[in-house]
Every structure is written in structure tokens, then in C-alpha cells.
């Protein structure tokens, strides 16, 4: 490999996700660079070459291996193809050894950051103590699923482990001829070499195993246990904060908010599961770091953050949650997590349209780019495309200062939904992530404002999808699943 040229034995980089999409009758592979948000479409021949690039073969070996699978290409064309991928930052150097190296690499990838974090924790504290950590479930909530499959139509990746994929192919061998060949219905979770986990192909943005009326065909044939674990546990989230395992809910599906205040739904977790050690070992339990950044350059111990979150959850909610979050962000930056900061939340100042403007502009730029790029290949029936377009339209409309001012002066239409949204986020520590807490608080205020603007957009375009019933959930799902949430880290740079 030359200093500036592609690797001698190339493979797809770990930060790139390859996903198979069927758009109408056309089949395409889309590469998602999760670091930059870049998308790249591939045809069947190009994917055949990339699938053979397992990090152990040079380009001539890749061409021969791809040819055996029916993907024929000349060596010179393959070299140009890999040079283009390298220039786009989508390749990594492979191992110079034999094919046995690739599965080992994949196994490490499949373990992911969760496994690394767990291993680090095990070295710091007694494993028995961790397993004995009590489970604390979000109180006063149970889920009523409407069975319309909104969550199965929105996410870029629906992950199956090997056993789950084999069961799905056996139950529905007709789906994309997956009963004959695994790779017809699935792509590797990460990279191009077959790994422990696989992502199912999507048809017009829907899981390939979803029936036309929105029902899961695997569930219909084999019962709930026939679905992959991620689908069975969604929208439940798990986070170990050092004192307990917080079990909360991701407000990313209309069913979640439609369940607020409705008793006798399904519990988030089997009540017989009392401690972390009772959980299925495959369940991903996130770990709250020992130090948490609460404002740019300022950190606190996680125990202090946990105590503050409990105080905030118990505080009297303001009439306008978005105002409370924005005011609280300023208080956290000025005073940290001192008790007095909660007063700014309970008695917030009105939202300033000028202060919101750069945040809305940054989110608009992200959403508009996503909508523009997706329109080039996604079906008009694809909910992800529509949602990106709706968010882009809403943030563009809010660029009008008078319209934004009118929206902010009007009371929220469903304040109980907004209060629950914050309660679920606090219980699951979902405000702690890629940006400091103060920025995350402002980000959530912006999301609520955008969600308030969406009904007018739905009315203007005649949108009637069931997912439109709960705009907050639609915004939440799109920001996390499609990288739009990165806008919050870009605002300060503008």
C-alpha cells in the first residue's frame, strides 16, 4: 500500500454500515458512514467485490473470489473502485494472514463498545456486585402496542443474531429467497465480512419480514419469541448508573406516547426480574461513565448526576417543558448541579426566538441534507424519507421569526406527552450522551418545539401515516436513527 493509496488488502471500515434495500423492484446496497453521515449507493457487482474484500485478499484475490459468486470485474476496474472507496474514507487495512483472521475481526466488531465497557467495569468492581445491582423500572407506565409496525418501518437497521436469522429464514424461506441463501435477506451488521450479527434487508424502508398491513410475519407464524431480541425488548432501554439498572422507555414510537395514562398494558420488564444478573445476557445494558460532562469543560461524578436527575424528576414541572429545559441549561452552565438550578426549571423564562434560531437552522441543514440524499434512492412509500422531509419543512418554516414567536407563545397542545417525554429521559439517563448535559437540555427543548410545529406540516401535505399521531416520537426516532442528532454538536461551531 502506498502512503496515499488504498490498503493492499482492503476491507470495509467498521464505521461503515452496508444495508440492502429494495426500492420497488430495484435492489441496491447503501453504505452509511456513521461518522460523517455520508451515503454511497452500490450496484450488485460492486457489492460482490466489497463482500469479497475480507481484509485477507489483495485486489486480484478479491476479483477471483467475487467471480466465483457471479460478480465479474476486471482487476483495473476493481482497483479504481477501491481507490474511490479509500478516498471517501470507507476502507480499512486488513490482516496479511489467512481467511481465519476475518472472522476473528468480525467477532471483535460484534462484541462492540458494550462488551468493551463491560470488560472495563469488571476490572474495577466485583462482578457479583454488578450482577446484584437492583433493577429500577420506570414507574406508572405500561405499553399498549397498536401492532401497526411503525417502528419496523423507520429504522435503518433491524439486527438479528445467527440463531434469530436462521429461525427467520426457516419460518419465511420465501422472503427474498433467504431460505436458500442467508446473504439474500441479510448483510453483516458492520463491515462486509459475515459477522455474528446481521441486518435484515429493507423493502421500501420496512423490515423484509413485515406484512403489508404492518404485522410481523415472524410473530404471526412463530409467536413473539420468533422475533429478534431487539424487537422483543423495544422500546425498553437499560442503563446501569452504578446504583441501579434503570429500565426506561425510548420515546420513539407512537405507541409509547399513546400509552401514557392508560393502565393494564404490557410491562416494560417481567416483574420477576429483580437484579441485573436476572437479565438475558444478550440484553445490552449501557453503562453511565464515572465522570459526566454537564457543560463544556465541566464534569461531575456520576453519583452527583444521578442524585440531580432524581431531584429534577421530583420537581414541579413548569407549564412549558421546553421553556423549563432551556432555562435549566443556562443554570447548569452557570451553577453546575447545585440545588438552586431547579428553580430555573420550575419558573423558566420565556423562550427567545433569536436564541433558538441557530439550533433550528443547524437541525434544518441536517434534515434537508438527509431528505435530499434519500430522495435520490428511497421510495415515496418510505417513512424515513417522508419523516426527514417533514422535519426539514418544519425547521424551515420556523426560520420565520414571526411564525416561531407565535408558536412559542401558544400553549403546548399535549403537555402531558411532553412531561412524560422528560420523565422517561430522566429515568433512563437519556440526556447523557455525545454532548454535554447543558447542550442536551437545549437540544430536547428544540425537539419539542419542532414536534409542536409538525402537525401543521402534516396538514399541509395531507400526511396520514399512523406515525404522525405522535410527533415527538417521530422526531426522537429520526434524530437518533439517522444521525440528525449530531446537529446539537454543530451549533456552537456556527
Give the helices and strands, then pairings.
Blueprint: E1 10-12, E2 16-23, E3 26-33, E4 39-42, H1 44-52, H2 59-68, H3 75-87, E5 91-93, H4 101-124, H5 127-131, E6 135-137, E7 159-160, H6 162-171, H7 182-185, E8 186-188, E9 198-200, E10 202-203, E11 206-207, H8 217-222, H9 229-233, E12 236-240, E13 245-249, H10 254-258, E14 286-287, E15 291-295, E16 298-301, H11 302-314, H12 321-335, H13 341-346, H14 353-375, H15 383-397, H16 401-409, H17 415-427, H18 437-461, H19 471-481
Parallel strand pairs: 2-10, 6-13, 12-14
Antiparallel strand pairs: 1-5, 2-3, 3-4, 7-9, 8-9, 10-11, 12-13, 15-16
Helix pairs in contact: 1-2, 11-17, 12-18, 14-15, 15-18, 18-19
Amino acid at each position: 500500500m502506498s502512503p496515499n493509496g488504498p490498503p493492499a488488502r482492503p476491507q470495509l471500515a467498521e464505521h461503515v454500515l452496508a444495508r440492502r434495500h429494495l426500492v420497488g423492484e430495484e435492489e441496491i446496497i447503501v453504505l452509511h458512514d456513521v461518522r460523517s453521515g455520508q451515503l454511497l449507493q452500490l450496484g450488485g457487482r460492486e457489492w460482490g467485490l466489497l463482500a469479497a474484500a475480507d481484509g485477507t485478499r489483495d485486489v486480484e484475490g478479491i476479483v477471483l473470489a467475487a467471480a466465483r459468486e457471479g460478480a465479474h470485474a476486471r482487476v483495473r476496474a476493481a482497483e479504481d473502485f477501491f481507490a474511490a472507496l479509500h478516498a471517501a474514507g470507507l476502507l480499512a487495512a486488513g490482516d496479511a494472514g489467512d481467511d481465519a483472521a476475518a472472522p476473528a475481526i468480525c467477532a471483535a466488531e460484534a462484541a462492540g463498545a458494550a462488551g468493551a465497557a463491560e470488560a472495563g467495569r469488571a476490572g474495577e468492581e466485583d462482578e457479583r456486585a454488578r450482577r446484584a445491582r437492583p433493577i429500577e423500572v420506570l414507574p406508572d407506565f405500561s405499553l399498549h402496542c397498536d401492532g401497526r409496525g411503525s417502528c419496523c418501518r423507520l429504522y435503518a437497521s433491524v439486527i438479528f443474531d445467527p440463531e434469530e436469522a436462521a429461525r427467520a429464514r426457516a419460518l419465511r424461506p420465501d422472503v427474498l429467497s433467504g431460505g436458500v441463501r442467508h446473504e439474500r435477506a441479510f448483510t453483516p451488521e458492520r463491515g462486509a465480512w459475515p459477522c455474528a450479527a446481521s441486518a435484515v434487508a429493507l423493502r421500501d424502508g420496512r423490515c423484509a419480514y413485515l406484512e403489508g398491513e404492518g404485522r410481523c410475519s415472524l410473530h404471526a407464524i412463530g409467536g413473539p419469541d420468533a422475533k429478534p431480541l431487539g424487537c422483543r425488548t423495544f422500546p425498553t432501554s437499560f442503563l446501569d448508573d452504578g446504583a441501579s439498572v434503570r429500565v426506561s422507555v425510548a420515546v420513539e414510537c407512537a405507541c409509547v406516547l399513546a400509552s401514557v395514562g392508560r393502565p393494564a398494558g404490557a410491562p416494560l420488564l417481567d416483574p420477576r426480574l429483580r437484579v441485573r444478573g436476572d437479565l438475558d445476557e444478550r440484553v445490552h445494558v449501557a453503562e453511565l461513565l464515572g465522570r459526566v460532562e454537564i457543560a463544556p469543560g465541566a464534569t461531575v461524578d456520576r453519583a452527583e448526576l444521578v442524585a440531580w436527575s432524581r431531584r429534577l424528576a421530583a420537581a414541579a414541572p413548569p407549564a412549558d417543558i421546553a421553556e423549563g429545559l432551556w432555562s435549566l441549561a443556562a443554570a447548569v452552565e452557570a451553577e453546575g448541579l447545585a440545588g438552586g438550578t431547579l428553580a430555573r426549571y420550575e419558573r423558566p423564562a420565556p423562550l427567545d426566538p433569536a436564541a433558538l434560531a441557530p439550533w433550528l437552522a443547524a437541525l434544518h441543514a441536517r434534515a434537508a441534507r438527509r431528505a435530499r440524499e434519500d430522495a435520490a434512492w428511497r421510495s415515496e412509500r418510505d417513512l424515513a424519507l417522508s419523516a426527514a422531509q417533514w422535519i426539514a419543512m418544519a425547521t424551515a418554516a420556523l426560520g420565520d421569526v414571526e411564525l416561531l414567536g407565535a408558536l412559542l407563545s401558544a400553549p403546548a397542545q399535549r403537555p402531558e406527552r411532553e412531561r412524560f417525554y422528560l420523565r422517561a429521559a430522566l429515568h433512563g439517563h437519556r440526556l447523557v450522551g455525545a454532548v454535554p448535559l447543558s447542550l442536551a437540555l437545549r437540544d430536547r427543548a428544540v425537539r419539542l418545539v419542532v414536534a409542536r410545529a409538525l402537525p401543521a406540516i402534516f396538514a399541509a401535505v395531507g400526511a396520514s401515516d399512523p406515525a404522525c399521531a405522535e410527533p415527538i416520537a417521530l422526531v426522537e426516532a429520526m434524530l437518533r436513527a439517522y444521525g440528525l442528532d449530531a446537529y446539537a454538536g454543530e451549533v456552537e461551531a456556527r
